TrEMBL record:
This is PTS sorbitol transporter subunit IIC. Keywords: Membrane, Transmembrane, Transmembrane helix. It holds the Pfam family EII-GUT. Signal peptide: none annotated. It comes from Anaerostipes butyraticus. The keyword Transmembrane applies. GO terms for biological process: phosphoenolpyruvate-dependent sugar phosphotransferase system. The chain crosses the membrane at residues 22-47, 59-78, 141-159. NCBIfam families: EII-GUT (TIGR00821). The keyword Transmembrane helix applies. InterPro entries: PTS_IID_sorb (IPR004699).
Length: 169
């Protein structure tokens, strides 16, 4: 009889823990994400959609910007999955590489811009909570993730572009 009671308590405990986690998100990360999304949309509104689009078309001429700055801007301003629509600014032969760079940046951006890909927050907050328990700063982790992410998306973009060119022949 005690075994059944322990199983039932463990089962309900699982949902209690899930409920506590959900409440922490409602009072913590969700308002942050909503405020960030509002701010990003306001910035685009202030700058003007046409100006943003012209700027993006200009920077796609340069490989380093096409696979660093464009995916970063797309991830920050449009978030996942709308970020892939920035692919309209690149030539057809660069679309696959842009997608690769952009999708590869979904995780590294969450430390500094959690609104960019809420689905990746589970991973980042898990790692960050471990650092906080050790008394370490999560700010350094966020910056390092971002910098390494930029390097990785540049490499992936260039490699994917070359692979696409070779396969297209």
């Amino acid at each position: 009889m005690e075994v059944i009671s322990n199983v039932a308590n463990a089962f309900i405990g699982l949902f209690n823990a899930g409920g506590e986690q959900f409440v922490s998100w409602v009072t913590g990360i969700i308002p942050l994400v909503v405020c960030l999304m509002t701010a990003v949309n306001a910035v685009i509104g202030f700058i003007g959609t046409d100006r943003v689009e012209r700027f993006c078309q200009k920077i796609t001429k340069y490989t380093i910007l096409r696979y660093t700055l464009l995916p970063i801007l797309a991830d920050i301003f449009l978030t996942n999955p709308a970020q892939y629509t920035f692919g309209r600014f690149v030539k057809e032969e660069h679309k696959a590489a842009f997608y690769d760079a952009s999708v590869s940046f979904c995780h590294p951006i969450t430390g500094l811009f959690p609104h960019a890909n809420a689905g990746e927050l589970f991973v980042y907050t898990g790692i960050a909570s471990g650092l906080q328990e050790l008394g370490l700063s999560v700010g350094g982790l966020a910056v390092r993730y971002f910098i390494v992410g930029v390097i990785v998306i540049l490499i992936r973009g260039i490699l994917c572009e070359k692979i696409f060119a070779a396969l297209s022949k």
